[in-house]
Amino acid sequence: MKIKEIIQAIESFAPLQYQESYDNAGLIFGDSSREVSNVLLTLDATEEVIDEAIARGCNLVVAHHPIVFGGLKKITGANYVERVAIKAIKHDIAVYAAHTNLDNVRNGVCAEMAGRLGLVKTKILQPKKGLLKKLYTFVPVGDAEKVRTALFEAGAGHIGNYSECSFNGQGEGTFKAGEGTDPYVGTQGSRHFEAETKLEVIFPLYLEGRVISALLSSHPYEEVAYDVVALDNAYQEVGSGLIGELPEEMEEMQFLRYVKEQFGTGCVKYTPLRGKSVKKIALCGGAGSFLLKRAIGAGADVYISSDFKYHEFFDADNQLIIADIGHFESEQFTVELFYHILTEKFRNFAPLKSTIKTNPVNYL
């Protein structure tokens, strides 16, 4: 198996197009055409993790956090990033990162957090816009089902938990085949009238090439008429954070202790209690203060995330409880997510989970 096959499996789950503009997800070091000896899964590709990969015979490290976040102007070993680069390249170890693209997918990092708490009725807290497109095409009535099915198989037609969604209108198309054409219906030089179905489907933008290819290969016309338009709709399957509900209400301190236990954190920093039971929970892996207003607006009782600054705790304003559990603690189960993605795709392949705890924060 090639490294690129591992990458394709991860990116079919979390497409690179879903990463934030500031991010650097993808293959950081290495040749994707090389064969895989084994894969080591980790949250951070530190020096210790590269040493572990060498010791365990792994030539691919899959991490959540990109070891190279900004540009590298020199690689002299002056800091840990440069040392990782030197060691990985020297030992032919590829390093790949799935970061905010894995954060932003519906069943990604936040879903792992929600699962640990048993949340139900979950949905994206802040869905993203600009990720959807719509295809309009015109097909002879008798061929509409063939084209429709091909588009669905290419990934078009998903709206929330519904698949194979399309709109179909009936009408009449006209065309005149010119010299040198081979028309599917009609004759050269004469205007032809054809009963057609106007077919509309939505698809995520990263699938555009596949969807158009499916259209062209299944459509009977020599020249296929179609339009692709960008939509401003929020894509409910992709975005930041998650919100859901506990199966049963809990007392505030009882819930905070439950969070501490489930995430194994040495410390939960939280804002003043409100004297109310909690049921609706918002969360975000990693640094999530940017979603606080969204969590308040969604009616959350508690917002679980990390990396809040001192003054940002005041922004809770007694409208909910902020529970800061730590950056590492909020994303630690990403390794399990990677493992699930790869073992589901490759049933006879067993990637290795790093035994290195990469959390740079300690609690006394």
Explain what the structure shows:
- Belongs to the GTP cyclohydrolase I type 2/NIF3 family.
- There is one protein chain.
- With 364 residues, the chain is an alpha/beta fold.
- It has three domains: 3-99 and 333-353, NIF3 (NGG1p interacting factor 3)-like (Udp-n-acetylmuramoylalanyl-d-glutamate--2,6- Diaminopimelate Ligase, Chain: A, domain 1, 3-Layer(aba) Sandwich); 105-126 and 240-330, Udp-n-acetylmuramoylalanyl-d-glutamate--2,6- Diaminopimelate Ligase, Chain: A, domain 1; 131-231, Alpha-Beta Plaits, CATH 3.30.70.
- The chain has twelve helices and 15 strands.
How do you describe this structure in short?
Pfam families: DUF34_NIF3 (PF01784). With 364 residues, the chain is of the alpha/beta class.
Tags for this entry?
364 residues, Udp-n-acetylmuramoylalanyl-d-glutamate--2,6- Diaminopimelate Ligase, Chain: A, domain 1, six-stranded mixed sheet, Alpha-Beta Plaits, 12 helices, alpha/beta
- The helix/strand order is HEEHEHEHHEEHEEHEEHEEHEHEHHE
Tell me about the largest β-sheet. Answer: 6 strands, mixed
Strand order of the largest sheet: 5-10-12-13-14-11
For this structure, what is the CATH homologous superfamily of the largest domain?
A: NIF3 (NGG1p interacting factor 3)-like
How many H/I helices?
12
Q: What's the CATH topology label of the largest domain?
A: Udp-n-acetylmuramoylalanyl-d-glutamate--2,6- Diaminopimelate Ligase, Chain: A, domain 1
**What low-confidence regions span 5 or more consecutive residues with pLDDT below 50?**
none
What's the alpha carbon Rg, rounded to whole Å? Answer: 25 Å
Strand content: 25-35%
Per DSSP E runs of 2 or more residues, the count of β-strands stands at 15
Distance between the termini: 45 Å
CATH class of the largest domain: Alpha Beta
